[in-house]
Design goal:
The chain has about 180 residues and is of the alpha+beta class. It contains five helices and four strands. Strands 1-2-3-4 form a four-stranded antiparallel beta sheet. Helix 1 packs across helix 2. The longest helix has about 35 residues. It is globular and about 80 Å long. The N and C termini lie far apart (about 70 Å). About 15% of the residues are buried.
């Protein structure tokens, strides 16, 4: 019995390490399938919505303050305006970055695609062409618990999707938007 125990444990550890290493790719595939099928419940298995909301709010608040400049920040009116704008963007993120908000976005995406004739088979009544935000993304491990998938947009800017390991599971926790790119 001892002869089989060590090889069995070693095999189990190798399989577990392989599963964890493949985890980001499995999560990306799961996100893609959930978006393609417009399945918000399935998407929520692969996305940490609370962490994603916090990270996106921080990004948008930082961008808002940077674009406002020091003159706007130093005046009383500017500080009040920035506070109101920050609350509005925060509320928008709170509403949109939820399973229901993403489902609404996907539904709207489908309606828009049908209205513009961008369907999977070219038929106006056919299914809309699926949204594929991670198609063509290049991934890399930044640590044992952080993985990034970078996708270049048509304008040359990059969107970075950050997946974080939570136990044995990988979930999307941040999306770094190309806010500083020239327009």
């Amino acid at each position: 019995m001892k002869k089989w125990l060590l090889p069995a444990v070693a095999t189990l550890l190798v399989l577990l390490a392989g599963y964890v290493a493949a985890g980001p790719w499995l999560a990306i595939h799961g996100i893609g399938k959930a978006i393609e099928q417009r399945d918000a419940a399935r998407l929520s298995r692969h996305v940490d919505f609370p962490a994603l909301r916090v990270n996106l709010k921080a990004q948008l608040d930082d961008q808002l303050v940077r674009r406002a400049g020091s003159d706007m920040q130093s005046s009383l009116f500017g500080a009040v305006a920035l506070g109101v704008a920050g609350r509005l963007t925060g509320a928008a993120v709170d509403v949109m970055i939820t399973p229901a908000g993403i489902a609404a976005l996907l539904q709207g995406h489908g309606v828009w695609k049908r209205a513009t004739g961008d369907t999977a088979d070219g038929d106006t009544w056919g299914p809309p062409a699926p949204a594929r935000p991670l198609q063509g993304a290049h991934g890399r491990y930044e640590s044992l618990s952080r993985f990034t998938a970078t996708r270049q947009l048509d304008d040359g800017s990059d969107v970075v999707f950050v997946l974080t390991r939570q136990g044995l599971r990988w979930r999307l926790t941040d999306i770094t938007l190309p806010l500083d790119s020239p327009r």
